[in-house]
Amino acid sequence: MSTAAAAALERAADLRRTLGVNFRDETVRSLYAEAQRIAGRAANTSATRRDFDQRIDRLVTSPVLGLPIMAMLLATVFWLTIAGANVPSAMLADGFFWFEDLAAGWFTSWGVPWWITGFIWHGVYKGLAWVISVMLPPMAIFFPLFTMLEDLGYLPRVAFNLDFLFRRAGAHGKQALSMAMGFGCNAAGIIATRVIDSPRERLVAILTNNFVPCNGRFPTLIMLATIFVGAQFSPAFASFAAAGTVLLVVMIGVAFTLAVSWALSRTVLKGEASAFTLELPPYRRPGVLRILYTSLIDRTLFVLWRAVLTAAPAGAVIWILANIFVGGTSLAQHVSNFLNPLGQAIGLDGVILLAYIIAIPANEIVVPTMLMVYLGTGMMTELDSFDDLRTLLVDRHGWTLLTAVNLMLFSLLHNPCATTIITIYKETLSRKWAAIGALMPLGLAFLVTFMVAAIWRAFV
Amino acid sequence: MSHNCDSCSIQSELERMGVSLTRFDRVVALAGNPNTGKSTLFNALTGLKQHTGNWPGKTVTRAEGGFEFNKIKYKLVDLPGTYSLLSASHDEEIARDFLLFGRPDVTVVVIDATAIERNLNLVLQVLEITSRVVVAVNLMDEAKRKGIEVDLRSLGRDLGVPAVGVVARTGEGQHALLEAVDGVASGAITTKPLQISGTPEFQRAVAELVPLIEEAAPGVPNARWIAIRLLDGDAQVEEALASGRLASIVGDQQRASQRFSQKIALEGAQ
Fold it and tell me: How confident is the model at residue A34 (pLDDT cuts 50, 70, 90)?
């Protein structure tokens, strides 16, 4: 330390002593008094303030009705997403696969070698087509609805409602905000944890953000809920049952968030929850055009673009794996056979695990990857409806309700995608926490699905 | 200034430059409490699409954009929303470091017209750091709906800096705000910022410390503010002075805060 700095610090300490202990309080008090005086002169606040807002707040943050209203809102959003996305998804798939056959036909008639045609149209293009038709419609409905709730000012109320749960788990109440952002994208949710001041609580929030399904995982959940749960009900109730199932999965995710936060704050990240103030902003009328812009351009197209970028190479990899034969069996078959015992132990199978390995860069492509491996190359089944999908999975590949349940759980709990892991590293600047952020959920996913499978097989 | 009209289009003089920040003449910082519409104003001026939404704490990085007004190129820096500059949470640190060492030509403090008293606490703290301040009273429409009348002239007189009413969402008042920013930056408008005087002993203590600080960290701006923080026993400021970081930080402020780069925020799809 330079002598000049030491002298300044020493003098400051002396002077502080002469000023007395109440100096800080006095400074703050005079600041507040001045603010009050100026505001009193500048603003004429004769009106009855925020009467309407307060009445709504009393309802949506009430100890009794707050949580049920929240669940209802979330269920409505899921239902609108599921019910609305069905038809456009099928139409997109029809169009894309019609074009696949058409284009492949052209290539063949032009004398292009079969493996180029296969690689481009049945590999790369098919992967892209799946991702777009499965993901685009739900996202184009879910994101605007979610952005609307955000713009309206509902998110801080969610944090308020959940605060008592997070506090009891030893976590920060604002974790509810980063959790809500995680519904869109876990990487974004992890960046949003910056609103949490305490490093310990921030780390808890970062490590548990993965337990809310991001947009890349919603299509998987929606598909499974639709074909395995929704299909059990009459068509009139199918979308309600599917939405209810997705809501249940999300609630299980929140329960895991709280449980893991609790466990972390009592072991490696010991500490008490800190107090904080959270402003409940006035409700504002959402700007429709701006919502459409942010949710469709910034969110939907961004996520879709990312999926496209990863789906194209993944489609290529799968096509190669499925078309290189060693000893009469394709490479894809070899790998999935190798993984099969592990997959069966947790109620899944080798193909699903292979799909999860290929999908590490982006969760969005799990389902298309899985289907492409199941379908192989020679058997170009048209999969333009959920019924066909059900037939393929259940009749041809022996899926049961256990497979669907465990796949939902695995999808909910398993390791975050590569982007999210990189974001954890960038935010914590620690390889250790990035590794824990990836491996802890993965271990938990295996443990939970293994236990569910064991119990299921013992009783069913 | 060519003309001074609030209702006419500003498109002719305002050119949104997005992130093309190769050259700029002036730096303007946007500070304010959380959820007062800083990012909305930022977007309106730069034509960028920073994430906005109705909850406190959205802006966690320091976003930068550019615009041109009256042929002068500005760099606009959107700081995270904070209630004060006193405590040490991460976003307050980002905001405080930039105001202290980033040396913006003008700091626009955005305040919520419906909660002026609470917002003024931050304004007063910013005035301790820098005199080149313009107060943008945002959400004037909401205030009007709630029957709150804001006397901008009284506010400006009391604070000693220009106070301009704006509606960031519709662009109302933008022109007057930019005129004020231009005036303060060029020196055409002289400000006389209100500073909390405190007791005579306090004044004497500050006066005594300022030269010592200037000696310990030559070239440091805002020695007065640092003196106040030292008297308050701010451990971070003490550490910065002792380690010599205070002297060096002036130079590499820009680089240091890149740890939380905007790039990550964009990658995260927001």
Answer: confident
Rounded to a whole number, what is the distance in Å from the CA of B187 to chain A's nearest CA?
Answer: 25
Please tell me the distance from the alpha carbon of residue A303 to that of residue A323, in angstroms, as a whole number.
30
Give B260's contacts in chain A (Cβ within 8 Å).
Answer: 194
> How far B78 CA lies from chain A's nearest CA (Å)?
16
**CA A366, CA A368: separation in Å to the nearest integer?**
6
Alpha-carbon distance of A185 to A303, in angstroms, equals 8
A449/A402 Cα distance (integer angstroms): 10
Distance from CA of B128 to the nearest CA of A (A): 11
Q: Tell me what ipTM this predicted complex has.
A: 0.75
3-class secondary-structure state, position A174: coil
CB contact under 8 A, A5 and B56: no
Strands B72-78, B106-112: pairing kind: unpaired
Structure tokens at A177: 């905000």
Chain B 30-49, residues with CB within 8 Å of chain A CB atoms = 34-35, 49
DSSP letter string, B247-260: HHHHHHHHHHGGGG
* Residue range A402-420: mean pLDDT, rounded: 93
Are B109 and B126 spatial neighbours (Cβ–Cβ below 8 Å)?
Answer: yes
8 Å CB contact of B151 and A42: yes
Domain residue ranges in chain B: 16-193, 200-258
Query: Mean pLDDT throughout A438-450?
Result: 96
pLDDT, tens digit (0-9, with 9 covering 90-100), for A231-280: 888 888 888 999 999 999 999 999 999 999 999 999 988 887 777 777 78
Chain-chain contact of A23 with B231 (C-beta, under 8 angstroms): yes
- How far apart, in whole angstroms, are the C-alpha atoms of residue A421 and residue A206? 10
What's the rounded Cα separation, in Å, for the pair B231 and A24? 9
Phi then psi dihedrals of residue A234, to 5 deg: -65, 150
Task: For residue A134, give every residue at least 6 positions away whose Cβ sits within 8 Å of its Cβ, in sequence order, or none.
Answer: A89, A93, A219, A223, A367, A368
Number of A to B CB contacts under 8 A, please give it: 211
Q: Across the interface, do B150 and A2 touch by the CB < 8 Å criterion?
A: no
**DSSP output for A378-445:** T------SHHHHHIIIIIIT---HHHHHHHHHHHHHSPPPHHHHHHHHHHH--HHHHHHHHHHHHHHH
Select B16-193's CATH number: 3.55.40.20, 3.30.1330.130, 3.30.365.10, 3.40.50.300: 3.40.50.300
Per-residue pLDDT averaged across A307-318, rounded?
A: 79
pTM above 0.80, yes or no: no
Cα torsion B102, B107, B113, B118: sign? positive
Domain ranges within chain A, ordered by starting residue: 66-459
Six-digit token pair at A366? 């799990």
Could you give the strand order of the β-sheet that contains B72-78, starting from the edge strand earlier in sequence?
B14-18, B63-69, B72-78, B26-32, B106-112, B133-138, B163-165
Closest CA to A73 of A158, A143, A139, A156: A158
Please give the backbone phi and psi of residue B116, each rounded to the nearest 5 degrees, phi first: -65, -40
Record the tokens describing residue A189, joined without a space. Answer: 């949710």
The phi and psi torsions of A110 (rounded to 5 degrees) equal -85, -5
Lowest mean pLDDT among A183-197, A334-348, A372-386: A372-386
Q: Is B41 exposed, middle or buried (0-12, 13-18, 19+ CB in 10 A)?
A: buried
* pLDDT higher than 80, residue B246: no
